[in-house]
Amino acid sequence: MENTPRKKIAVFISGGGSNLKALIDATKMRVLDAEIAWVVSSTKKAGGLQIAADNGIETFVYRPSKYESAEAAADDLLSKLRERKIDYIALAGYLKLLPENVVHEYSNRITNIHPALLPKHGGKGMYGHFVHEAVLADGDKESGVTIHLVNEEYDEGQILEQTRVDVMEGDTPDTLAARVLKQEHKLYARVLNKLIKGEYGLE
Ligand code: GRF
Fold it and tell me: What is the value of pTM for the model shown?
């Protein structure tokens, strides 16, 4: 019974990779009953690549501009995912769009983490400090974390879970980001685990 192979997750990053680290730790603690089998980065400068290497996880820098065409790039990414028998894709600070063939093949098996309460403060250009600046500029009393599915509509995929975080008097984008990030690290592993266990009733 304990011999069922663990599901394989590919984590896609563009930056520091603190969410990647939290996911790796969660697999060790079995909060996330899966294997982080591959880390894909949109840039070789992402700090998260070192975190992957330190944990013996294979990495790949995916640069579509290095291929003859966008189609060739997308095909290569999809075959690499297939070769590794990746079951799920977790976007964790990945700043690029996934190719359509990948989104299609992994329908209901791609998640994204967003550092605010979608549908507010989402969409193009809303990432990193821009999100927290927008929350403060709007005078919101709360912000939080959203984990959602990624579909063809992109930022509009089904919301799986949210955690609310109070906005405090005197918050700056940095202090708010830090408080939200703490919750991101807790929520993402739990949601992925539920998704893998079929607890969202998706196929
Ligand atoms: C996180 O705030 C995540 O919500 C957003 O990008 C940031 C990535 O941080 N999508 P890290 O690279 O995981 O530290």
Answer: 0.96
